[in-house]
Amino acid sequence: MKPVAIALLLFASLCCTRECYAQDAGDFHPATTNVWGAEYPRVDSEGRAQIRVKAPDATKVKVNFWSGPKLDMEKQPDGFWTATTPPLVPGLHYYTLIIDGAEVSDTNSRAYFGGGKYASMVEVPEPGSTYYSIQDVPHGQVREVWYSSEVTGSWRHALVYLPPKYDEQTKVRYPVLYLQHGAGEDETGWTKQGRANFILDNLIAAGSCKPMILVMAYGYAGRAGQPAPDFTGKPFGSPEMLKVMKDMAAAFEDDVTRVLIPYIDSNFRTLSDRNHRAMAGLSMGGMQTFQITLDHLDLFSYIGGFSGAGGMLVLGDRKLDSKTDYNGVFADPAAFAKKVHLLWVGVGTAEPERMRTGLQRLHTSLLDANIQHVFYESPGTDHEWQTWRRDLKDFAPRLFQQASQ
Q: What is the pTM of this model?
């Protein structure tokens, strides 16, 4: 009887192990950001993420969420390393793996360009939110364009979203929103990470915003014949770093206003007056937006800054001087309101303190200067894509409502 008893004991132990594992697994399912067929990373209804990587010869493996936990992974008998995060806030989360000191991407995840490199991401769904999901509505198209710039002396790349029925309604012209990415990202960010095309599809289908063309351009620029911008050895906030940023921003400003806008107006059916042209951007793109639009109010009448409005003014820890900043465009509130149909500033409530308080200070400064504007706070989100998805969802429906003026 002893072998039978041992067998029963082993069977019971196996059942218990499977039951315990099933309980621990909960309702985990593969993340939507995975490559085809990958079971991991997985997420559950609480927002936890499970990461799994095969590294049988490694001695130490960590998972590094850039705006979240940094966890030691546990080695399993089969050579896989695993980790389960605490609940994460909804949205996209960049992460990398540190395997014996080497930082690598997780091959189970699609690659997303952020932080100046391709990295992994896991999507934690926002319960009840479908505004950035693919839905059964008419869809626009995202097209790639290349244009030659005499400003940079190079070919430059942009993505262009065309609204549903653009190719069918050949006599219809559309307003344009120029939408910029942040530092360390590129022109693919607003479609791959931000899902801007699906946000607009859903808003247009619901009748919540005007059909529009969306232009997402490569945001780094250097002048033809000059060395590429170099931040090496230039501390953040130093005069040397600020000069490099200023030079790069000025080159991009000239590329947008002298090359990109004429190219888009020549190659797509746009409404090419200022009343039908908007610009917005996140982080660095918000800084670029404020510089470009406020320097060129003859070209733009709708302005949006997503976690980046005001740029170095915000990070410089001072209030807006309405009489002198941005060449005094805020000095006359009535004149500004006639020219600018919408000035929009957004921030996540969980963003880094310097960014959050700086943008709140900008909001207060605009109030003190009697400048009409919208200030939007995304609850519970950091300097991350869920903040900027929400920003676009609030910003886009406000555009071109006064375009006939």
A: 0.90
